[in-house]
Each structure stands twice: as C-alpha cells, then as structure tokens.
Write a structure and sequence with these properties.
- The protein has two domains: about 50 residues; about 120 residues, Lipocalin.
- Helix content is about 25%, strand content about 35%.
- It is built from one helix and twelve strands.
- The strands form two sheets. An eight-stranded antiparallel β-barrel has the order 1-3-4-6-7-10-11-12. Strands 5-9 form a two-stranded antiparallel ribbon.
- Strand 1 and strand 2 form a beta hairpin.
- The N and C termini lie far apart (about 85 Å).
Length: about 180
C-alpha cells in the first residue's frame, strides 16, 4: 500500500512541476486551433456561396446570334449554363407545344471535350411545382432555341471567353457571351 502512495505522490509532484509548461502548451495549442478555425470559416464563406464552375468557358450567359447562317439577334434568345443545367429564354419566341406550362424551358446536358449533348428538356411548370419532361407524351418544338431534337448532340467548333459555335449536322449556332 505504501508503494502505491509513493507512486501517487511522485505523480502529483511531477504534475505540479509540469503545470506551468502544460499551461503554456495548452494556451499555444488553443490559439493555434482558434486561428485555424477562423481561417477555415473565412475560407468556407468565400467558396460556399456559389457553385464552382465545372464547365470552364462554357459556363455563363449566352445570346443566340445566328441560327443556320441567319441572324437571330433580334429574337433575344438566351442560354444560361451552370453545372449540368441549361436554361433557355426568349423574349420573342416560345416553344411550340400543346402542353400547359407556366413558362420557361430548362434542359440537362453533358459537356466533354468538344461535344455538348443536351440530354433532356423540361417545360417549367411552377404553378404545379413540377416541371414537365419533354418526351413523346409531352412534345415541344424547341427549334427557336436552336434545339431540333432531344437528345441533341453538338460539336463545339469554337469556345472562347466571348464566342461559341456549335455544329450538329447541317445546323450551326453562333452564340456570344455577355
């Protein structure tokens, strides 16, 4: 029993001698941890507010300028691209369809190398809070937007910070970024 008491007393004495060093070590660890947490918080605020672009120069807002060699700038047709979503808008044209919807068209796409494939299109129906898939049951003519079929495969002939040219068979689209 006395051996146990000696060990305890030795441990207590050692801990008492080390206490000032441990306090400074704990203090410096705590300051380092707080600085690291503050840095991570600031970093997360910077990058968490928006999705990072994954399509490179393709991401952004585009205006359809030419369709099959004809100028269509006056139609004010726009493509907005982010992540894998394409929003189609026009202030003068609408999809030709018998389907009732509240307005607007969105599409899913994939972009790999020099190909852009628009896989699915949806008529936006915000009134019923459910978008309508464009298929054989719910048909829509999107040719005013430069899309003649779904899925639509384009070859990206030119893609810069200012201009994009898409080609599919005999169809050619020229868009400008703004």
């Amino acid at each position: 029993m006395s051996m146990l008491i000696k060990k305890i007393m030795t441990s207590v004495a050692w801990a008492a001698a080390m206490l000032p060093r441990q306090r400074s070590l704990v203090f410096s660890l705590r300051n380092g941890l707080l600085a690291c947490l503050a840095w991570l918080f600031a970093l997360s605020l910077t990058f968490s507010c928006d999705k990072l672009p994954r399509n490179g120069k393709l991401d952004g807002h585009w205006q359809l300028m030419e369709r099959d060699g004809s100028s269509v700038q006056a139609e004010r047709t726009y493509w907005a691209i982010q992540l894998d979503l394409l929003q189609l808008r026009s202030f003068t044209k609408s999809p030709i369809t018998k389907v009732k919807y509240s307005g607007g068209v969105v599409a899913r796409f994939s972009h790999q190398g020099d190909s852009l494939i628009i896989t699915k299109g949806y008529l936006m129906n915000r009134v019923n809070q459910q978008d309508i898939l464009i298929d054989s049951t719910h048909q829509a003519d999107l040719s005013a937007f430069g899309i003649t079929e779904l899925p639509m495969r384009y070859k990206v002939e030119l893609l810069t910070d200012e201009k994009m040219t898409l080609v599919s068979g005999s169809h050619r689209l020229v868009l400008r970024k703004f």
